[in-house]
Design goal:
By secondary structure, the protein is an alpha/beta fold. The protein has 14 helices and 12 strands. The N and C termini lie far apart (53 Å).
């Protein structure tokens, strides 16, 4: 295999190796996929204002997330059905995250159970939650995550219905027959029916609660003592409500551009959310991160850290646990280099003054 020099190179290799249905499921976005492209392109419009002649012989990237010390502000986002990419799936991802000293978020729709992921050994792990119509299922799932040592709940709030993912409709996507949604296997909800469109869309329609509302954030707090991150916030208005209803953190996310097309890139929404949060809770970014420079830009705009999704899936498909380790190491190395070349020796030294955005340029042109 040729030498891989950046995270994006894994996608081309994964496309060659994965069945078309699986690759399309991981790679595609909703409808016209405008937001899918914009999640990446918006980063390219943010430029640096580096500072010079600063001693950068020592650089510290360590940070703290919800009281947990991690090696860097780069964490793993929840991505469903990872055994479609590699036989070890989420177990390989969990080991890679632990070896990198960072956080893995396990999807509700994982092909390894919370207990199996816990069994791979120590590690800081969060659990992503979809709220099912049957709240007893939710109670059981949250309790199992707690018992398995998960440290926080990432509540996905942007999926009352599944976005229209046309690649999945064309492919009549369904979970391969040798796999199940392991967390739901004992409840007889671990498989998907083959349908004339997307099997996942049909599954979501039949199981996920469309009535989910802010009061359910409060309800979750009555069934668990774990901190709750609200994943899918993009506006100041919802930031205010997240704080009002007791969220412990916000993940600015558009679900990897897989839900509502023509929403802005998450990096374009970040500053609005950060301004409204006013430091009352941490704000994280999910979506479009492929370079250490992207991580730096998110931190400069006020994020406490970032989550990566597709780079994990594609590297897992190509080289299993070693691939995920390499992706995390490459992003770490690139962030360290960006910090050095920008004159920052710790994450706390990365400020808004280190970047220029489109809105900055517009403001300056009006002066």
């Amino acid at each position: 295999m040729e030498l891989i020099t950046n995270v994006s190179e894994y996608e081309k290799l994964a496309k060659e190796r994965l069945p078309k249905m699986v690759y399309d499921y991981y790679a595609s976005g909703a409808e016209d996929q405008w937001t899918l492209k914009e999640n990446r392109e918006a980063f390219s419009r943010i430029l640096f204002r580096p500072r010079i002649l600063i001693d950068v012989s020592r650089i510290d990237m360590a940070t703290n997330v919800l009281g947990f010390n991690i090696s860097m502000p780069i964490m793993i986002a929840p991505s469903a059905m990872q055994k479609m990419a590699h036989p070890e799936g989420e177990l390989a991802t969990a080991r890679a995250a632990a070896s990198a000293g960072t956080i893995m978020t396990l999807s509700s729709w994982s092909t390894s159970s919370v207990e199996e992921v816990n069994s791979v050994g120590p590690g800081i792990r969060f659990f992503q939650l979809y709220v099912y119509k049957d709240r007893n299922i939710v109670r059981q799932l949250v309790k199992r995550a707690e018992m398995s040592g998960f440290k926080a709940i990432a509540l996905t709030v942007d999926t009352p219905r599944l976005g229209r993912r046309e690649a999945d409709i064309k492919n009549r996507f369904t979970l391969p027959p040798h796999l199940v949604l392991k967390n739901f296997e004992a409840l007889d909800l671990g498989t998907m029916d083959k349908t004339n469109d997307s099997g996942l869309a049909s599954y979501v329609s039949s199981q996920v609660d469309r009535s989910l509302s802010w009061k359910d954030v409060k309800w979750l707090q009555t069934i668990t003592s774990l901190p709750i991150l609200v994943k899918g916030v993009m506006t100041a208005e919802d930031t205010r409500l997240a704080i009002e209803y007791g969220a412990s953190g916000i993940i600015v996310s558009n679900h990897g551009a897989r839900q509502l097309d023509y929403v802005p890139a998450t990096i374009s929404c970040l500053e609005e959310v950060v301004r409204e949060a006013k430091g009352r809770l941490p704000v994280f970014l999910d979506g479009g991160v492929r370079r250490g420079t992207d991580v730096f830009k998110a931190l400069a705009l006020g994020a406490s850290g970032v989550f990566i999704g597709r780079p994990v899936l594609f590297s897992l498909a190509v080289d299993g646990e070693a691939g995920v380790r390499k992706v995390l190491q490459m992003l770490r190395d690139e962030l360290e280099l960006t910090m050095a070349l920008s004159g920052c020796t710790s994450l706390g030294e990365i400020t808004r003054n280190h970047v220029v955005t489109d809105s900055d340029r517009i403001r300056r042109s009006r002066l």
